[in-house]
Every structure is written in structure tokens, then in C-alpha cells.
Amino acid sequence: MAVPGRGTGRVSIAGLLCVKPGQRTRLIYRMSVYHGRKYEPKGFGSADFAALLTDAHQQLHGPIMVVWDNLPAHVSAPMRAWIAARADWLLVYRLPPYAPEINPAEGVWANLKGKIYNLAIHGIDALAVLLKSHLKRMQYQPDLLNAFITETGLSLEPP
Predict the structure, then answer these.
(1) Cα 100 to Cα 81: distance, rounded to the nearest angstrom
(2) Which contiguous run of DSSP H or E holds residue 135?
(3) Are 61 and 89 in contact (CB under 8 A)?
(4) Residue 82 has what DSSP assignment?
């Protein structure tokens, strides 16, 4: 999310909506703030996504099936190799190109943008604090998270 007004900056968020039968739906996320400094990463790379998936695996105590869009960092050669090396606990399905309507995470991002976009003029650090606050609240609203999944036409019930 780019920040208008004061200087250059961006807040990047990577998140997973996690569904496990018999448990509440979870949102696991990581945030990165870019201040426009030289050599500072502007967003998430393959290593950051790998760390997020590793953390999710540790938190969820089991195998993970990920449904991913075609972000370049998701389909890069290093990420494909990393995924292949973890085939015992990680299964990745790719969404078709340009299909935000079937990506449940898009509901999370739209919800966030609608709540805080007008507050972004206070600067990048204030925006990061607001985003984290809203995400933290969202983590404990399984009905809201389930609604993002249901909006896509996906089922929360096991096959």
C-alpha cells in the first residue's frame, strides 16, 4: 500500500488465511515497512515468503496446503526449489492469472484499505501501526475471515 503525501513509503503485508477442520479460521501475517531508503527492500521476496510459510507450519503443527496467486516472488526459481524441498509438509496450488475474485486474501486487503486509507496522510510509520492494529483485531474474528473465504465460492467443509 503506497502512502500519499509525506515522502516515499510503502507498507507491504503478506498473509495466509488458514483453515483447519475443527478449529477457528486464522490469519497469519507479516508486515514490512519501506521508508524509501537506499538498499532497503521495497516488499517481500522469496526468502520472506519462505519464512512466513515456515512460521505458519510451526504454528499450525501440521502440513500446509497453500493456494497462491502468481506474484513473481511466488513463482520464482528459488521459491519453486524451496517448495520442492518441503514436499513432505507443503503443497502449493496456483490460482489462474488475474483471478482476485477467487483469492480469499483479497477480501482481507480490501477490508483493510477501506478502513485506513484516508489515515495514510499521517506518515508511513503511523500507517503501519494502524494496519497492525486492524490486522490484530481481524485475527480474532473467525466469522469475518470465513466470510472472505465464502465470498470466493470456496467451501470451508473438508471434501
Answers:
(1) 25
(2) helix 124-139
(3) no
(4) H
Cβ-contact 116, 134 below 8 angstroms: yes
Q: What is the distance between the alpha carbons of residues 72 and 87, in angstroms, rounded to a whole number?
A: 21
Q: Strand, coil or helix: what is 94?
A: strand
Q: How far apart are CA 69 and CA 5, in angstroms?
A: 30
Q: Is the dihedral of CA 36, 71, 12, 5 positive or negative?
A: positive
Among residues 1, 58, 31, 54, the alpha carbon closest in space to that of 138 is found at: 31
Contact 93, 103 (CB under 8 A): no
CA angle 69, 30, 122 (to 5 degrees): 105
- Model confidence, pTM: 0.74
Query: Tens of pLDDT along 63-109?
Result: 988 888 888 888 899 999 999 999 999 999 888 877 778 787 878 87
